[in-house]
Write a structure and sequence with these properties.
single chain, 139 residues, alpha+beta, SH3 type barrels, seven-stranded antiparallel sheet, 2 helices
Length: 139
């Protein structure tokens, strides 16, 4: 298996990364379905706690956030409760755009989601990606 750490340059954000952390990033670091309206966006860190804590692994899984939802569907674009201190205005987690991001692209950490909000986003990502956590009736 190819070592994803080979040839990596730049300082990695290696400490204090956790599921549910919210960071500001440059919009150009992500893939979008439409051109973004802002130069920066918040992202929510997801993925394996082990990989988030591994200082040598170059990527993290993120869900981008927006203040301008396209589809008005609570599974595709999960509303972030106004009580979440990592956000300054009404925002939505764009679950269908879950994607890897280089650690070096992470900017300022603005906070961490509550367990309840993270659980809602996790469930929406599982549904959008189509992962089944239970055996199907056809097996």
């Amino acid at each position: 298996m190819r070592d994803l750490r080979a040839g990596l340059t730049g300082a990695l954000k290696t400490s204090g990364l956790a599921r549910g952390d919210v960071h500001i990033i440059q919009s150009s670091a992500l893939q979008w379905t439409k051109p973004p309206l802002a130069e920066t966006h918040r992202v929510i860190l997801l993925g394996s706690p082990g990989l988030l804590q591994d200082p040598g692994f170059p990527l993290v899984q993120v869900v981008p956030c927006t203040t301008h939802p396209l589809y008005r569907d609570d599974t595709l674009e999960v509303p972030i409760p106004e009580t979440e201190s990592a956000f300054t205005k009404g925002s939505y987690a764009i679950t269908y755009l879950i994607q890897p991001l280089r650690r070096t692209d992470l900017g300022e950490r603005t906070g961490t989601l509550t367990a309840q909000t993270l659980e809602i986003i996790d469930a929406a990502v599982v549904e959008v990606v189509g992962i089944s956590l239970t055996p199907s009736a056809t097996e």
